[in-house]
Amino acid sequence: MKPKRYVDLDLDFLPHPVTKDVVLKYDEEAVKRSVRNLVLTNLFEKPFHPEISSNVTTLLFENFNPVIAIRLRNDIERIIRDYEPRVNLRSVNVTPSPDRNLLEIGILFQVSGFNSTTGINIPLERLR
Amino acid sequence: MAEELNKNLQVTDLDFDSIKESLKSYLQGQDLFKDYNFEGSGLNYLLDVLAYNTHYQSFYTNMVANETFLDTAIRRDSVVSIAKHLGYTPNSVRSPFAIVNISSDEAFTLDAGTVFTSSVAGESYTFVTKENITSKVSGDLYVAENVSIYEGEFSTLSFVVNSNNRNQRFILPENTDTSTLTVRVANSITDSTGLSTKWQLASNLNEVKSTDKVYHLQETDNGRFEIYFGDNIVGVKPANGNVIVCQFVLTRNPDANGIGSNDTETRRSFTLEGFDVRTIAASAGGANPESIRSIKFNAPRNYQAQDRAVTQNDFATMILRDFPDIETAVVWGGQDNDPPIYGKVFIALKPKTGISLDAPTKQLIIDSLKRNRSIVSVVPEILDPDPLYLLFDARVVFDQSRTTQTPNGIRSFALTQIQNYVDTDLEKFDGDLYYSKLLGLIDDISDSVVGTELRIRIQKHLIPTLNTTTNYSLNFNNEVFHPNDGYQTPVVSSTGFDYKDDNNTVFRGFLEDDGSGNIRIFKVNDLGVKTIVYTNVGSIDYKKGRLSLLNFRPLAIDGTVIRITVMPKNQNIYANENQLLTLDVTDPESLQVVAVTTLQEKNMQLNNRILGNGSIITGV
Fold first, then answer.
1. SS3 state of residue B595
2. Does B375 contact chain A (CB < 8 Å)?
3. pTM reported for the whole predicted model
């Protein structure tokens, strides 16, 4: 079997159905999780490193308009560019879904060492 | 090999980033996880939690360890607790107390807590007695002599002993002066038997028997004081239902020292209606609760002294512990005195307010030392500090382009800096002046200061007996500037005094030296012409810094002292034994500072060169 390039823990900590060990994430899946973690990290969540945050949830409390969409996109692009060197970012799309009170964040990227373009969708929704 | 190293987790780093780096470095030694180095990875978030937790724990452990040792403890309750292990109880707040004579035409008895009032600068103070006072007949009057009255409020607090309550504590109120505390124990609320007996503060456990009525005192964790009792083995244990009656003075103003110093027949400092209250000793002894710094200093020394005054340090430790209004103490044996006086120990004390102690306080200290503490054959003697006054003449040069300050602003900073240096580093025994340190402090007042020129002179105050021929000796304790025998510029100067010449004509005279070790008196006429009147009224030992005046008989002086100033050879000034380096704030010459800009300085130097004047510029 080809050796795995990236190996990470799954922060959901779900047990493997057979081995009962903690499930691991590999290669593109591991990188996708990393991108998702970075985007969802708020200011001061990382101890002593407030700069490692996208702070997108703060913007959820603003009235949505095109400017907010641009700020969100810039914040997401910045954090991925600064803290996820394994990713070649293709695009970040912010799509409002006013009827469902949420924003759809679509991030397309190519993981270095892999040819295909992959992506994740993160629905951002206010919880309160 | 590198893999081997990575398997060793570094545990010496305690800050978050170092801990996290250590964990990452540790993970390099395995193949299972690879993403720990990427900030977004799940493993990295897990490392954050681990590193934060470790950092938190190590910080906490560090703080706990710090609070365990006297040198590093910061919290007062930690310091007090460690001091308790050394048998040291910190001083509580102390009420200033005055000693008065009370007289009346009729016989009288004053109850404990009788209030005396006093007013200073529009502020009123109350002083109270802490015991019942009964008058005695003296001539036509009834008097109570040498009565101690304490600033504050006399208070009584009772506790009913409840043996069923294991957590019962007897805590005294805030601002209790524990030196005024009396403890009595009555049988019960309805039976006052036992109230006439004062329980004693246990000072030495070895001397306490099971039947001794003693109490113990300790500071609690909130700064208040608590009394507690023995266990019927070491001291009597009060029984269930007993009533513990504590009486004490609650201090309102521990800084109210010095009240009564202006007491006169017509204007009494303390008043009690219907009585004449004469001040014998002005209020003294008031002090705030012992500071953490003081506890750290005194506790180990108190342990070394073991409540006995044998070595020099024992005396100093004991006095500083028992008399909190003493700021600094120095002790030396008679054998080290000049001249040696065997069988004596000399103690020089400086109170927190003023320069010297009054006679009753000195006697109180002597009595306290003699009582079971000092060696029988050694007689303690208290000396007043011997002030050696400093005169500063400073010239601060600063670059005006690097500051918004005016010359006056820089001058003001320099004045404050010198004053602070004197207050903190000097004005205590063994407080020597180091020239370079002071210069450095002045240079540091602003980045714009480019240099400082500083000249220091030293001065003694001679209190002459007017109209009486007397010999005087002044010890400057520092070598006096004397480049060669016959040096023509006098290095000794003085303020004026009236003196008689051989024709019995009174003139205003001044002292100076003749460059050969003789002190002479000169006068100056209205035209500024100087005439030597007496060529030899004393001598100066330049090497030892000692000046003596023989058969000196001034008739009148300005103020109360003749100020005699000398130029020291070295700019480091040292104080020995009971000498204190200080500033005479009443003397405008004591602190002279000018601040000039670099431009002014250059112009002045240029003018100087043109004039060919090689002398040092001392002012603008």
1. strand
2. no
3. 0.59
